[in-house]
Amino acid sequence: MTATTDHKQGQRGSAFVTGGSKGIGYEVARALAGAGYSVTITSRDQQEISRAAGDLGEQVRGVVCDVRDPAALEREVSAHVDAFGGLDVLFVNAGVGNFANIADMTIQQWQDVIDTNLSGAFYTIKAAIPAMKERGGYIFTLSSLAGKNPFAGGAAYNASKFGLNGLSEVLTLDLRQHDIKVTQIMPGSVATHFAGHTPSDADAWKIQPEDIAQLTVDLLNMPARTLPSRVEVRPSKPPKK
């Protein structure tokens, strides 16, 4: 059985993935396309999104879209629905990280994180809900273990992910009668380019982006009656400290 939402009765649908030019979003888009979905991926960078869409193949369209811009999201979700006839899966992934002691963090650093990770998630979901109510679907919010475990220097990031978890839980209550599932995926250390990191062989112990992609496909294959509403994901064998 290919990945699909049960209400579609086996038919493949379409998916919208924010922050899809690299890392987790890219691998989720690849997995969904491989499972038969038509996919739109977004990025703020034209060169990166063109490269990613070209690599992922003809089932994937790439668009430049800043999730901090509600009007841009409404426009691109509408274009996605026009292109594919509807929207079945939303993967809310776009995120940034600025880390500093609260006393040293600038207002701009705070706003960049909250506006992208939390407000951007709200704008993305808000834009997608009308189309998803037409036939039900699945919303994934890419949170973090930082959404339950605060750490020094993580004021903005922790706040954004704690907030995203709360938003996701309310979404479940608001949307369940419309046959829309909502799952928070909360990874620990993932080998991505997040916060300026460059993945290398030293990251082999970490969760890999394709692992989150496989989890997403597996969740889509769950029976319609069952909702894993929060999934915490950790490296199985981190280095000894």
TrEMBL record:
Q: Which UniProt keywords apply?
A: Oxidoreductase
Q: What Pfam families does the database record attribute to this sequence?
A: adh_short (PF00106)
Q: What is this protein called?
A: Short-chain dehydrogenase
Q: What is the lineage of its organism?
A: Bacteria, Thermotogati, Deinococcota, Deinococci, Deinococcales
What does the similarity note say?
Belongs to the short-chain dehydrogenases/reductases (SDR) family.
Superkingdom of origin organism: Bacteria
What InterPro entries is this protein classified in?
A: KR_dom, NAD(P)-bd_dom_sf, SDR_fam
Domain Ketoreductase, by residue range, is 13-194
The record's section on PANTHER family has: 3-PHENYLPROPIONATE-DIHYDRODIOL_CINNAMIC ACID-DIHYDRODIOL DEHYDROGENASE (PTHR43943:SF17), DEHYDROGENASE/REDUCTASE (SDR FAMILY) MEMBER 4 (PTHR43943)
